[in-house]
Amino acid sequence: MYVNPRWRRRLLWTVGAVGAVGVLAVGAAGWYYSGLVIDPVHTPEYPLEVTAVRGDEVTLKGGADTASPGTYGLTWADGNALLGPAVASDAGTVTRKVARVLRGDLRPGVRAYLDRWLWGHAEPSAAGVPYTDVTVPSALGGFPAWRTEGTSPTWVIAVHGRNANPAEALRVLPVFHSLGMPVLGITYRNDVGAPASPDGKLHLGATEWEDVAAAIAYARSHGATGVVLYGWSMGGGIVPMTVRSLPDAPIRGMILDSPVIDWRAPIALGARQMGVPGFLVSVGEWVVERRTGLSFDDLDQVRHARDFKTPALIFVDADDATVPVEPALAFAKARPDLVTLVRTTGGGHTGSWNADPARYERELRSFVSSL
């Protein structure tokens, strides 16, 4: 069939233009999605609304976890309260007991969030533990931190999760204080008040481990002969990277709570929750690697499970809707000689303590005593 050369050129040009627009659109979407993974965000969110306060009960509207069993805080812009169990739920609201209002005015109309840390962005004194503000020196500059009192030569270094802060460790401070173990609650690059990374992006543990290394050096220079690294969420991914990168450091053990053992899993889960097409997840991961220089294969601790020699205590919760538990289970299965696995239900992401504080603290004491 004869095709006019002029029309052929127009067709080829149109196909090429459409293809180019498609590539640009996919690239732009991948760039946007990559930013959701590696851009630091420090703006607090308050998804819950207080609709009623009656005596020692508060009714909350919104959120997906307000009925979670266990012990939680309720934190709003200028206040904080400790909550007891849920006592009723109806038509999108949940009513919980209020154990104590610590500060601020708990009233209808307040916007808040369910606080697994209990005390919001507080200091160790909120948990009744004496502490000192310190600065951890590093090649990037000084990192703000705090250090609790203790006489043990083994320190705990607490590594918080993505876009969080050292207050994430407050729940467990009384345990280590009772054992005489100092806790160093650190910040790392791109935290509020801390030095930024050279590119201003999160590297998901690929470079943040260097800040934990600086904290280990600080602890040793102040009398520590050994350390236990304790990480939550992304911090639970930074800790294994530190252990792998410092094979000769005196790291006695690692404690991981809802850890990111393989970053591909939470990225894929987040994409499904947002309705992002599967092919864009791969594009986004590729863009993340190009923008930061990190390698998802290198961050996959299951792939490197045989490299570990350090005992580990790992907490996972079956209702974690942020970080899938399967990689942590695979890591534990690969290294049963090193890993003590504790599984809880109902606590959600980093909520194993909240679901069952007594059991959680027993496991902490048993693990630390065994090191």
TrEMBL record:
Keyword rRNA processing (UniProt): no
Transmembrane parts of this sequence: 12-33
Q: Provide this UniProt record's keywords sorted from A to Z.
A: Hydrolase, Membrane, Transmembrane, Transmembrane helix
Q: Which GO terms describe its molecular function?
A: hydrolase activity
Where's the Peptidase S9 prolyl oligopeptidase catalytic domain? Answer: 199-350
| Superkingdom classification of source | Bacteria
Keyword Heme listed? The answer is: no
Q: Which protein, by its recorded name, is this?
A: Alpha/beta hydrolase
Q: Which organism is it from?
A: Microbispora corallina
